[in-house]
Design goal:
Number of domains: 1
Order of helices and strands: EHEHHEHHHHHHHEH
Strand content: 5-15%
Number of strands: 4
Mean pLDDT: 85
Radius of gyration: 19 Å
Distance between the termini: 24 Å
Structural class: alpha/beta
Largest sheet: 4 strands, parallel
Low-confidence stretches: none
Helix content: 55-70%
Strand order of the largest sheet: 3-2-1-4
Shape: globular
Number of helices: 11
Length: about 260
Amino acid sequence: MDTVICDTSVWYHISNGIITKDKLENKHLVLTNVSVREISYSPHLTKRMDLIVRVIRTMHENHKIAIPYNPWDHIIKLFHPSFVGDTKSFDKSLNGFNVLLANFPHLNISTSTIDVAQSQIDEIRCNLSSISEHFNNGLEEIRAKINIDSNKQKHRNTSFRLDWKRFFSNWVSNYSKQYNDEDFVLDIHSPVWEKLEFFLAVWEEFFKQLEVDKTGIITQNDWADILNMVYVQPWCKFWIREKKWHNIFSQNPFFSRYVIPYEG
């Protein structure tokens, strides 16, 4: 029986029958904080409530395990097992999902409530766009430092794994000081990083491709996809239905042990 971390696209495709029930056999599907958050702030929530309810029902009926921590708290928990993160937002979303399941289609939602929800959705998507813009500006700086035409293969063959570990260590440190009132340090040389080998490998390959592609950019939709991979540990599989990511996985045979093959 495989433990399978599901991208949000998988829940959509199960709900509409693109992924048939026989494909779920011998799989323990894992529902993550990232997918719950993505559904909670989906633009469909205010425009296609029927679609969202169908996806929520699919999640409810088919997941075997739920991971309540956001990606950063999850990483902290791996390095500091005694850490207890805040799951209030996750629990609130699940409670809201239960209300929808129990009352749809007879749920009476006021126009003002829909407007507030839409405003919150727009704000979150705007924040993601700002983060994407920041990273995309950084890509321009990196491209300026390398001669893409002559050094593309050399850049691809260079390992930046230690640099990325430092990057995430700093990011988690800043996050934990802001949201947990404590500076959680990630030891760069800790064997715990092995539990994140899939995530780190995908992240590095993703950015290498962006760095040597003169026109490549990070989009706001990329963040949920790649941060969902934080939960994939060596005994897990990862299931995503987007060809873009499978093109990245095809660049390295290492990924085949983790990824459920793409079916278009």
